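S.,

Sequence below, as promised.
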Amino acid sequence: MDEFNKLSQIKTYTKSKLGTDKTGHSYDHIKRVVTMAEKILESEPADKLITLTAAYLHDTIDDKLVSDPKSALAELQEFLASLEFTSAQIEEISFIITHMSFAHSLQDDNFQLPLSGQIVQDADWLDAIGAIGITRAIYYGGHHVEKIYNPALAPRTNMTREEYRNLDDETIINHFYEKLLKLKDMLNTPTANKIAEHRQQVMLDFLTEFKNEWNSLA
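The prediction came back faster than expected:
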């Protein structure tokens, strides 16, 4: 099966899994991640098929979104095998999508994403910052009925993965300090770093305006 047909079927698979998502991880997010990955690929010598496949599939096994990530991964691997991906390709794609999240970076595991994974990670994290990132953070927080802001509640530091996933101890505004503002300095590629500069400032300006309005200073 040629690359075009493989990616076409992968796109359909992703739509079937995330097409009804209401947390900010729906197919529009996937499309932006894929488009950004394609942009970064223009200046990075990574395997295009591996990169775009991982970009399409990265949220289909996310523990925020599926009740049984292990079963979801097994199903995904079986699907890729049916598309004639090799065992080595399936292993690389699986490694990328199970190790690229910010939550995974909070663990003590020592690992290095391959370049294809670094590109997908950059594309995904760029979609978590800037104007889109602000919107998605509020949308996700609202979906989980998080508090918007509590000035008396300081952002958490040195979190474990489990603590990070505990939304009872988070506010939407604190999420910017606990994750989103950190992403710019964790990116891998020059293209992503350049794009992140402006998006970072958009978030900083938003937080300044938000706090001024919260305190009736603006």
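Residues 190-214 form the longest helix (25 residues).

Coffee later?
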